[in-house]
Design brief:
The protein has one helix at 74-87, and strands at residues 34-43, 49-57, 62-69, 94-97. The longest helix is centred in the C-terminal third of the chain and has 14 residues, at 74-87. A hairpin with a 5-residue loop joins strand 1 and strand 2. It is built from one helix and four strands. The protein starts with 33 loop residues before the first strand and ends in a 9-residue tail after the last strand. A four-stranded mixed beta sheet has the order 3-2-1-4, covered by helices on one side. With 106 residues, it is α+β, with helices and mostly antiparallel strands.
Length: 106
Amino acid sequence: MYGALRLNHLRRTKTRLPKRGVLPLVAPARPNDTWAMHFMGDLLIWGRAYRLFSVLDESDREALTSRVEVSLPSVRVIAVLEQLCTIYRGHSRSAATTARKSWRPR
């Protein structure tokens, strides 16, 4: 019966990727070395979407700025980063962002 219905074929298994070595995270040695930038968003109870842009200093986990706006175009993000550069005497050596797709309200 199995042979007649052609159900006797073996299933293909997934090809697994080789395991990568785990690298330890290194904390920045001094302030203003690495900034972490996060974009978040949510809906208000009546359905209005809003965005949140926050910048953290990774060395001491200090919140440098947080902006909540309905519309957050790149021009405003650049203006916030330039304002941070003038306040904190220069820009950071590196910046880390969240690595996921852009948030879209439903």
